[in-house]
Design goal:
GO terms for molecular function: metal ion binding. Keywords: Magnesium, Metal-binding. This is Putative 4-hydroxy-4-methyl-2-oxoglutarate aldolase. Its cofactor is Mg(2+); a divalent metal cation. Helices cover 30% and strands 25% of the residues. By secondary structure, it is an alpha/beta fold. Strands 1, 2, 3, 5, 7, 9, 12 and 13 form an 8-stranded mixed beta sheet that branches.
């Protein structure tokens, strides 16, 4: 792995970084639109993508993915953005958490939003609805998927926080990490200049500035 970092170390490093900083250093291109956290947010989700494609409103292949789950995986489900039936709820998210998943991302709906909202296990989705899923298939696992307009490949690094979800290939992730940390340092200095009343508007002129 580049810069001497193992994959697990690289993922751990992204777990303390904000998605806006990552997005800025990916030319603001990758990013899932319309997905939000439903869990009790208290940190950053980061892990490897275990991808699932399923027909709208059907969760048979999500159940299959749970049996293939490895600790540290983020289950990423392309449900076509369909919000008419929930694809997962409290039971399936609890199973994923008990098997060491880093989180679950659903381009579709969930249910049991109250229970999921009291739990710190990361769960991102489009909406919540009481109607349950079909369980007939078809579907696919570990194939490229599209969630909220963002393409995610099997094994990509997936990061999520209060601002949403972003994913990127592990190749090049070490260089991305360095760029994100550099921007984080620049922004920390800008915040310090604001507190000390010496800010001169430099951020608006800097590459990557947007706030």
């Amino acid at each position: 792995m580049a810069d001497g970092l193992q994959e697990s170390e690289l993922i751990d490093a992204f777990r303390v970084l904000a998605t806006p900083l990552i997005s800025d250093n990916l030319a603001r291109v990758p990013g899932a639109v319309g997905l939000r956290p439903f869990h009790r947010v208290g940190g950053v989700m980061a892990g490897r993508a275990l991808t699932v494609r399923t027909r709208p409103g059907d969760n048979q292949f999500i159940h299959r993915a749970l049996d293939l789950l490895q600790p540290g995986d983020v289950i990423v489900v392309d449900g076509g953005g369909y919000e008419g039936r929930a694809l997962v709820g409290e039971i399936m998210t609890s199973v994923a958490a008990s098997r060491g998943a880093a989180g679950i991302v659903i381009d579709g709906a969930i249910r049991d939003a109250g229970a999921i909202g009291r739990n710190p296990f990361p769960c991102f989705a489009r909406s919540a609805i009481h109607l349950g899923p079909y369980k007939d298939g078809p579907g696919a696992i570990n194939v490229p998927v599209c969630i909220g307009g963002m393409v995610v490949g099997p094994g990509d690094i997936v990061v999520g926080d209060e601002d949403g979800v972003v994913a990127f290939p592990i190749d090049g992730a070490a260089a991305l990490l360095a760029a994100v940390r550099a921007q984080e340092a620049r922004e920390a200095e800008i915040m310090q200049s604001i507190r000390e009343n010496r800010y001169q508007g430099a951020y608006a002129r800097a590459a990557g500035g947007s706030h």
